[in-house]
Each structure stands twice: as C-alpha cells, then as structure tokens.
Amino acid sequence: MTFPAEVLTLTTADGYPIAATRYPAQGATRAHLVMAGATGVPQGFYRRFAQYAASQGYAVMTLDYRGIGRSRPASLKGFRMDYLDWGRQDLAAAVDAMSVPGLPLYVVGHSYGGHAFGLLPNHHKVDALYTFATGAGWDGWMPLAERLRVKLMWGVIGPMIVRLKGYLAWSWLGMGEDLPIDVYRQWKHWCTFPRYFFQDPAMGHLAAGFDSVRSPIMACNALDDLWARPKSRDAFMSGYRNVQWLKTDIDPRRAGMGPIGHMGYFKQQCQPLWQGALDWLEHNGRTRPAGLSR
Q: Which CATH architecture has domain 6-284?
C-alpha cells in the first residue's frame, strides 16, 4: 500500500527550521500522534511505524531534531546548540503543529523521546506518552562487556573523533547520525550520573518541568536492551514524580520476535508491539470534556 506523506518545515520558538513529515490518517482520524525519536536517529527510521499508525487512523508527524537528518546545517563543525532544545524547542513545535481541538494527541517516544517529554513546555497538550527503550544512560546499569565498550567510546574513541572533526562523527562507527559537539558533551556528562541529568547539580531547574507532567505514561523496555535495561529505565522514569507511570518488560525470546535490543522496536518484526502501544494510548489517554481546549 502507498502511503501519502507531506514533507514540511516547522519553525521553533527560537526560530530554527525543523524538517518534519506528516502522514495523514487513512479513513476517519482517531487521534494525532507525534513521534519523538532517539539521539542520532533520523526520522526516516520511524517511517514504517508512522505508516502503520496512519493505516489505523492516526495522523502522525515525525521530525529531525536540529543538527540531525534534514535539519542538519551544511556543516556540523562550529554548529552550537543545547541538547535540551531537541525537547523544549523542536519536539515542542511538532506538538503545537499536531494539537487540534476535538482530537486526542499522543506522543510515542524512543530513548531520548522519553527524556524529551518532561522538557516540553507544552506537554499539557498531550493526552498520553508511550515510550520505548528510555533509560538513564549510566554505564553502571549495563552488563560488564557493554560497560567496557561504552567507557572506551566515551573515554578514547569519542574524544579522538571530536578533536579531529569538531563534532562526533558517529557515522564513522556505523552507530547513527553524526552528532553536534554540544550534544556529545552534554550526553557524555549526564551519562556519568546513575539518574542522568536529574543528578547534575547544574540541572536542578529541570525537575519542575517533570513534576508538572500529568499525562499517563507507559515505559516499555526489552530485556536484551544493553543500553536501557529495566533498572536504567526505572532510574530515569522516577523523575516523573507526580505521575503513576506504568512499565512493561519484553522478553524477546518468549515473545518470538528475535532480538530487539535498543533499536528493534521500530523494525518490521516488532509490529505487534505497535498495535499494543496504540491500543494503550487510546484506552489510557486523558479524556477531556467536549469543547475544552488544550
């Protein structure tokens, strides 16, 4: 089946142009949905999920955060930004664009997407969040072999590449999109804390935004995800202190899906998880009295 898609540009509150794609709902529109992607993952990676959701009656928007994919400048060398702005500026622009009276609005997150939700200045417009593979990033939550690999990346390989290129040329390692230098530095720093930026003394102001979240949340993690194991997820998600967020763990072997890891949720093999996420959003999203605007 061919799915129509509208390529468009959003303008953030601070004036940055963000490349986005809108997938119209097939048939009657049940709800709107924004896909909040992971660090270094371009929006095209989520195309199959967006098309599936559109086939089920959801109008879906994907986006590339600033510095990534089609939102990348001509050169990342010398490009400066704040990692937090992927949530409080870029994702916020998509939420505004997809928020319309009379229809529910949901966010599906992947890894960083679960972080970004608490950074949104307009999260009150969102009726529910379902996030996959969100964790705290601290290598102490990882198995020993992965912990050593991550320490090598942060301590040796990453700094060498950044000194040479002026940004993290992650594509050299086949690990995703190249990352702006500020994303690399902030991410690396926050991964030294068991609860990520919640334990950074300079980031104490972030707690208020997370405390104000009231939208229902489900956090789903695979038991074979070396980067975001259940304990890592719990360490970060505890930052949503005023929401009784729910969690679910998936054993890929018992589910018969093959390896899932950190990235597999949005590959075709995991389509059964997509319908489960959409069903949860529809049945657990906040309900609003008719005529009540967001």
A: 3-Layer(aba) Sandwich (3.40)
